[in-house]
Amino acid sequence: MKKNAIVYNPFKGIFEVEKDLDKVFKDFWNNDSIYYPEVDVIENDSNLVIKASVPGYSKDDIEIEIHDGYLTLKGGKKEEKEEKDKDFLRKEIREGKFERTFKLMDNLDPEKTHAEYNNGILEITIEKKEIEKPKKIMIKAS
């Protein structure tokens, strides 16, 4: 007569907790209300350029603010009312708000900032301050 043995696994509870935590974090990070636009930050000799990908937003939906050495890019659009007779199989078009903040370098001049929006790409250009050249002082002999 053959008996079935039950194998005790002391780590089974830990694996279950790990699976539950993975689900919580996956659900949190996949939350549609959280949106951070992808950006490219480019520096050249004369300025700093921040390019942000914000497709589906109009220029009126976006706000740029520079304050205390930080540039904040934020925006949002009103969510469209879902029609009751539509059954979405998948809904990926983002709606809602976004915000990104960047610490600016000290050598930038916030007064010389301009922005352009074209085909879902926002391009913010901040000019660098002119660097003061060292002043040479002539010593006179007496």
Write the layout of secondary structure elements.
Blueprint: H1 12-29, E1 38-43, E2 47-53, E3 62-67, E4 70-77, E5 96-103, E6 108-118, E7 121-128
Antiparallel strand pairs: 1-2, 2-7, 3-4, 4-5, 6-7
Primary descriptors:
142 residues; mainly beta; Immunoglobulin-like; 4-stranded antiparallel beta sheet; 3-stranded antiparallel beta sheet; 7 strands; 38% strand; elongated
Q: What does this 3D model show about the protein?
A:
With 142 residues, the chain is mainly beta. It has a domain at 34-78 and 94-128: Immunoglobulin-like (Sandwich), CATH 2.60.40.790. The chain contains 1 helix and 7 strands. The longest helix is centred in the N-terminal third of the chain and has 18 residues, at 12-29. The radius of gyration is 27 Å and the shape is elongated. It starts with 11 loop residues before the first helix and ends in a 14-residue tail after the last strand.
